[in-house]
Amino acid sequence: MLDTPLKLHPSVALRPEPFGALAYHYDNRRLIFLKHPSIVGVVKDLGDHPDLQSTLSAHGIAEHQWDAYDKAICSLIESDVVIQR
Amino acid sequence: MTALTERMKDGLDAPICITWELTYSCNLSCVHCLSSSGRRDPKELTTEEAFHVVDELREMQVFYVNIGGGEPMIRRDFFDIVEYATTSGVGVKFSTNGTYIDASTAQRLASMDYLDIQISLDGADAATNDAIRGEGSYETAMAAMRHLRNAGFGEFKISVVVTRHNISQLDEFKAIADEFGAQLRITRLRPSGRAVDTWHELHPTLDQQRDLHQWLLAHGENVLTGDSFFHLNALGDSLPGLNLCGAGRVVCLIDPIGDVYACPFVIHDEFLAGNVRDSGGFADVWRTSDCFSELRGPQSAGACASCGSWDACQGGCMAAKFFTGLPLDGPDPECVGGDGEHALASAGTIPRPSGDHSKPVAVTLGRRTNK
Q1: Of A10-24, B182-196, B329-343, which one has max mean pLDDT?
Q2: A71 lies within 8 A of chain B by CB
């Protein structure tokens, strides 16, 4: 997914929380927990960068952590919070 | 216990899930009604006050509310409130017995966005259901579901409170849901409201709870539970969902007169945090009330501290303990380790719910009915 252009689903709202954020999908009415504050910033900005890896760079995420972020984003794609553009 | 649930125990700036009961008025008199509903309360929130609650929820980024009652559709401004909420970005799921969903109402509901409906059904056949919910209520619910299907509403929910008498019908409930393209929701019976008097005869037996745990595990996330069965996690494998009591931490109840309680199952002064009519509104009650602050503080495992299953079950449901006269820092009355039964044998005085809006039972006695 690292070189894929992505964005936050337009029907998803994010509410900042101490643990990260609460995401609510207005279309399928599902609640999803983003369990780390740093992933929230990445998810919000996906649409402003060419792809996932450039978003991660822009957020100063070290390369050895990219795999973990890739996995987290994949699960958010599965729950339709993040989509391809 | 994950870091996430640990965090939630401290409470959040805004609830994740709010139950908002719009009225105590109800055309039915279900024997297990958690809010002892029947008669309208004259202090009910006005339409304007209800709109103001929605405004607050929107500002707090509460994404959706579970509207209930009583029978919420009895309120003449029901659609006004629901439309005000959904167009404000506060999604609505409402619970109804289906009485007021005819063909044209179903059409109207089907045309609305961000709206979800939950039809209550407590038996997979009329005899089982009507024994709990009253004569004719099964057919009423089925008719409402047919109207929703014919109107193309899409996936609504069928909500079942599991009892000793319907627990053998789980597969049949699932079949009814599948037939209507609906999603099945199974929740736990609590000894709240009128169930304070009926729980002892209605709650599932220990063997039935074991079967239920297996059934829920087998159906995974395809069957919703409102995370109400986490006390069963002590049987081994954990059920999907949050494994904690969310009362005052991530959930709360706004009752028809604006009183804010820790959860829908504890309508009692002990768990009353404030009122949305107070000067700081709902937000202030949620964020600063002593009652909720206490629930967000460290909780003692009490008599359960030495039990190896405490991490799995978290001591169970606060409401279930409270309304069976058990200490809050001890086992759940339906503790699957059997400790609840022992505790019940020496339980204290059973508290009475704070309000009772039941219709007077004697109403049919003085009148001759010719059928």
Answers
A1: B182-196
A2: no
pLDDT for B137: 98
Is pLDDT of B363 > 70? no
Taking a C-beta distance cutoff of 8 angstroms, is the pair A34, A43 a contact? yes
Q: Is the pLDDT of residue A17 over 90?
A: no
CA angle B207, B210, B212 (to 5 degrees): 110
pLDDT tens across A30-51, in order?
889 898 889 999 999 999 999 9
E-strand stretches of chain B: 17-23, 64-69, 91-96, 115-120, 157-162, 183-188, 251-254, 259-261, 272-275
A20, closest residue in chain B (CA to CA)? B4
**In angstroms, rounded to a whole number, what is the distance separating the alpha carbons of residues B319 and B149?**
36
d(CA A18, CA B370): 64
Q: From the list A18, A19, A24, which residue is nearest B63 (CB)?
A: A24
- Across the interface, whether the CB atoms of A19 and B64 are under 8 A apart is answered no
| Stretch (H or E) spanning B311 | helix B310-313
- Unique residue bearing structure tokens 């503790």: B335
pLDDT per position as a tens digit, B279-320: 999 999 999 999 999 999 888 889 999 999 999 999 999 999
Phi, psi of B275 (to 5 degrees): -135, 145
Nearest residue on chain B to A24, judged by CA atoms? B63
Could you tell me which residues are beta bridge partners of residue A7? Answer: A83
Question: B7 CB near a chain A CB, below 8 Å?
Answer: yes
Residue A33 parent element (H or E):
strand A30-34
Amino acid in the structure at residue B89? G
Dihedral, B18, B77, B27, B149 alpha carbons, nearest 10: -80
pLDDT band at residue B369, thresholds of 50, 70 and 90? low
Q: CA-CA distances (angstroms) from residue B289 to B123, B244, B250, B255?
A: 39, 21, 14, 16
Q: Is the pLDDT of residue B371 over 60?
A: no
B68-105 pLDDT, tens digit each = 999 999 999 999 999 999 999 999 999 999 999 999 99
**Gap between the Cα atoms of A71 and A36, Å rounded:** 13
Determine the residue among A11, A29, A78 to mutate to test chain B binding: the one whose Cβ has the most chain B Cβ atoms within 10 Å: A29
Mutate one of A9, A11, A17, A78 to test the B interface: name it (highest B CB count within 10 A): A17
With the CA atoms of B161, B162, B166 and B170 taken in that order, what torsion angle do they form, in degrees rounded to the nearest 10?
A: 100
A residues 4-63 lying closer than 8 A (beta carbon) to B = 13, 15, 17-19, 22, 24, 26, 29, 31, 33, 35
Of the two residues B9 and B225, the one the predictor is more confident about is B225
